[in-house]
Amino acid sequence: MAEAGLLYKNQVMLLTQTFFIKDNRNELLLGAHKYDFDILFFDQMSDFVMAVQSSESNNLFVIDLDVLYNMQDDMQHNRRQTMFLSDLLQRLPADKNYIYLQTVRQGERFLLQQKLVDSNCQAYAEKPITNDVLVDKLFNIFAQNKRGESNTVVYLGDKPMLDVDLLAANQIELLHYQDGRSLHVRVKEVQPDVVLIEEAQYLQTEALVRVLKKNIEFDPGREIILLQNSLNPALARRALDSGFDEILTPNDADVLTRQLLNRINKIRASKDLISRDRATGLLNKVGLQKKAQEWIRRATREDKPLAYGIIDIDKFKTINDTWGHYFGDIVIKRLSLVLSAQLGERDLLSRFGGEEFVVVFWDSTLEQGKQKLDAMREAFGKIAFEVKLREHKNFSFSGGVADFPACKTENEMFLRADAMLYLAKQGGRNQVCISGK
């Protein structure tokens, strides 16, 4: 079993005994470390079960089902025997979920698939599967588990037929609205992911969707759904032709809520593809700019200040040139963990590009933003990176901070913070600068 890597926050625990995995062990680890998780290999059931029982909840547990045919059963005096799937499932801790690797032939057996998905199966994959694909899929599961993304739904009508508590439990905010003629203003203001419109509101103002979608700032990923009281094919055709993306019949609040949750989960996955950095799981430049604009709108409504910080790793080119780009990637990923650990619930963090990060602190003044960024800088500076065997180095970053409402737009904050970052670099690095400081 491999020792846990100190640089990696998340772990995959893999139970396997086949050459297919073991011969690819080093390549698997290389890919996993690039995505900031480690893989611990197990070849004994008892060791694997003990590790799973004491493991953190955010770890992933992967089982290569070929162990069923080549398992050295340490519970039976090290006698090698074939184990049945039911035996395997009974031994696994019942409070965890598992990812199964199986051969294509196993994958063709529906009853096997059924037994897996009914027994704490988080996902399954068929072998042969290339290392880069497996690592990428595991990273996606980590990203889904930690997403914590909030979404907004605007409901136009008299009374929302939705389970508000279930929506809130899934980080979805429901905003009730009743004025169809000013709906476009409200949508522009809050930028919701879904707009639900009752049939009566549509019949009263049939231009509703056209007005929403023709706005140059309209998000093409946003869904507009008509809630139709009963099946009326002529009305449905007219609504779809006018721009509605879907038509739902709200006969049951629980069913409608679950339909909405499914749609929002797909929206979240789609947004992740274009708004997240694949290496760290953080917002990328596109995602940060959109979120920052949304935060400015919220801050304006709630009369809250924002602090906008830009971070740049000091002498990063030297790090790459001296120890290689792979090691540079590790430094970037470790910094992303340090920054993430100190974020507030409504703060934003982005890998803006290369070794540059942006953080937006909610309800923080310029001075408070500087203090928070300085705390992050000090935490990062305490990390000892092993650059060679028994040789460790510490690294640093510089930062600049701007604030809202002193700066009115996301672009204005970026330019001001970037100017402060330049002063920090020119002043000797490893410091955070703000206006007049």
From TrEMBL:
Organism: Undibacterium hunanense
Protein name: diguanylate cyclase
Domain named GGDEF: residues: 304-437
Entry-linked NCBIfam families: GGDEF
InterPro entries to which the protein is assigned, alphabetical: Diguanylate_Cyclase, GGDEF_dom, Nucleotide_cyclase, Rev_trsase/Diguanyl_cyclase
Reaction catalysis annotation: 2 GTP = 3',3'-c-di-GMP + 2 diphosphate
Gene3D superfamilies tied to this protein: 3.30.70.270
Signal peptide: none
Source superkingdom: Bacteria
Enzyme class, UniProt record, top EC level: transferase
Enzyme Commission number(s) from the entry: 2.7.7.65
